[in-house]
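Our platform keeps sequence and structure together, in a single record for each protein. Because each token names a local backbone shape, the row as a whole describes the fold. One such record is reproduced below, unchanged from the form in which we store it:
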Amino acid sequence: MPDQYAATDPRTGLQVTITGTLPADPDDRVRIARTTNLFTRLMATILAMDDITARRHGFRAVETQLEVADALMRGELSEVERLVRETLQTTGVSDEQLRAIEEQLRRHLEGWAGLDDDRAPGGYT
């Protein structure tokens, strides 16, 4: 019999259930529960929106972030880049602005390269 986890949003009563063979590791099970609870809360928040345009934007934002996370975990950086570029363009950021942002980030990251681990923001070097 497959394992099952159900998360219910207390504000709306929306329930999301996952069913399948779940890992036995307790830490993995906690992560599954937390992720399912978060997804349920996000869906409830979006579904509670009265404005259909805002609701559609909410769905698209969640979809895009999940697509980015999936591509990152698969190591498909070109797909991550495509998704981020597409998202920024739909919000009105031009290719020229994207190139300027990329250059600023590159210069900023190069500045971190010479810092010790404890001095670099967020531990990045």
